[in-house]
Amino acid sequence: MKRQAFKMYLKPGFEAEYEKRHNAIWPELKQLLKDTGVSDYTIFWDKETNLLFGYQVIDGDSSSQDLGGNPIVQKWWAYMADIMDTNPDNSPVSIPLQEVFHMD
Length: 104
Description:
Layout: E1 2-9, H1 15-23, H2 27-36, E2 38-46, E3 51-58, H3 71-80, E4 95-97
Antiparallel strand pairs: 1-3, 1-4, 2-3
């Protein structure tokens, strides 16, 4: 098992919409993540900076950030593109964070 963290950027004024969309996450996307070995997936929001902090545990070689070739993920990215900073392919601008401390 590996831990992975990353940050993304939420456009101002879309905080409630971001939470609403994730509260109704598509079952097929959730299943894809589980089937890929992603668990304990949590996203935190910093109100002052509109920075999103994502954390997930990975059992395998792929994280949620590696699934861009999947049509379900591409559809989700397109759905979220209007409220997040994105790359030209609609993937969220996602910056990996280096782990510097962990305590069990």
